[in-house]
């Protein structure tokens, strides 16, 4: 998961974009009106019949038919800060790289796991592709994958097990600065069975405890992640280390023959436009600030010949620019990172009515929220965080700004979609008076606005800065929240950042990654299988000591919550059973909402716009099915 979809590369319901070609034909029909005139008949004693010659039907010009085209243009309102698949983690990077880097496994538009670059069925315990080996404290999980024999890099070199091992070792190099390493840290080794088969070997109990103690030896520097292992509870591990989505762990591959000699600390400087991928397309050109152009690879793609020759991802600065491009027919689709939301429904309804495009409103796992920095004034006081929560009228936000099309939520999983959703948690209904009571209990005087409090002999205002991206609907959202908070006594300064700045690493000065922010609005692209290690565990709080790894930007840290997350994701007796996980997640949600490090606002309805005649555009509801995951199947006719 990742802001705007920060996803791990963070980055684990059904959208069927059925484009009715007849729609365009209807646009071209000529309406023929037949007018019948009445004749006055004069009565005669006899009726003489004569031959009647019928005038021929007028010949109409044929209705213009759709013609296939070989270029498709897609709109994005964000631009990647990097194309390196292991550094940074924006949704837009995942989208533009999905036709270039396909990989072993993916989710499809139904959130079903399917093999792509790997062969056969997804390996599971049930089908024998994953098995437990060893006994006692040495018992561990092994998952074996088979790379397709014909899977290749776009320079013609074969994809091999060595590419998988290289990618895992690179992720586990602390000098890389990978955006998320939690799942990779569960692996003890990746073994090449042969050139095309590899086995992901998860840690045993004994190895987990050794990792927490900083003494585990192996093919990567486990000691560099000792703090992560210790804080994630590996020292108390019981049984083998597992993952609820074990079949998706350790399957990343990168072209070792091209970038294998680049030190981890220098990987960020790689010009990724020159690096081959394994997909149907190659990067032709990146015109920064304008567009990124992909061209069909001259190497045959094993899953089928791509119908589209050129894919252009065009970057737009503002939502208004995207809408203007739709009105002029400049683009063929708006992606999930195109900046459109249900706030644009009135404009989109008009565009759809014109007949050139179809607008789709789809439920999804992305949720908009406010992170509060729990280690920085004034949100280092839980009562202030709770007071702010009570001060925000979420339904009013949705009704006024989003035409009632978003669904408000209090949890990091969407109601009505996620199997893990529970109604048993600490709730903060809109109640300004309750907010004032909480502030008074925290020592704030709200007799005037803003509230004030004397701290160490200095009178301070209840003032903070609320950051978000410069997207138009986010600006409006921040402004309305500012007005609601003012009623209670908060003084809120607003700061709007370019989305790239909010997704940059700490080394580039990103206030989110460096945890120098007060409060920030953004969205996470969540998973259909809830996993919060790396997001809300103590070890995931970015700091200098852990190279600013992790995405626990609010700084939520609770020992019991860490235990619960570990049970949910690593305990072999619990993490592989949804029924056993439900009460574990419910207790976590109770602790998380009680501490109020985050204020969930609503689940984002996904908005896509596709041209009539664009078929097989099938973005999925989670971060594991980026919009171009099946780009070789795309077809476009105009």
Number of helices: 15
Helix content: 10-25%
The overall pLDDT, averaged over residues, is: 88
Shape: globular
How many strands? Answer: 24
Report low-confidence residues grouped into runs of 5 or more.
1-63
The SS-based structural class is alpha+beta
Strand content: 15-25%
N- to C-terminal separation?
A: 36 Å
- Biggest sheet layout: 7 strands, mixed
Structural Rg? 28 Å
Strand order of the largest sheet: 9-10-11-2-12-22-13
Helix and strand topology:
Layout: H1 22-28, E1 68-69, E2 71-76, H2 91-97, E3 105-107, E4 113-115, E5 130-133, E6 140-146, H3 161-171, E7 187-192, E8 197-202, H4 205-212, H5 226-231, H6 256-259, E9 281-287, E10 291-296, E11 310-315, H7 319-328, E12 333-334, H8 345-353, E13 357-362, E14 366-372, H9 382-391, H10 394-402, E15 407-408, H11 432-441, E16 452-455, E17 458-461, E18 463-469, H12 472-488, E19 491-497, H13 499-503, E20 519-525, H14 559-570, H15 578-595, E21 598-603, E22 606-611, E23 614-615, E24 635-637
Parallel strand pairs: 2-11, 2-12, 18-19, 18-20
Antiparallel strand pairs: 1-24, 3-4, 5-6, 6-8, 7-8, 9-10, 10-11, 12-22, 13-22, 14-20, 14-21, 15-21, 16-17, 23-24
Summary keywords:
disordered N terminus, seven-stranded mixed sheet, 19% strand, single chain, 24 strands, 638 residues, alpha+beta
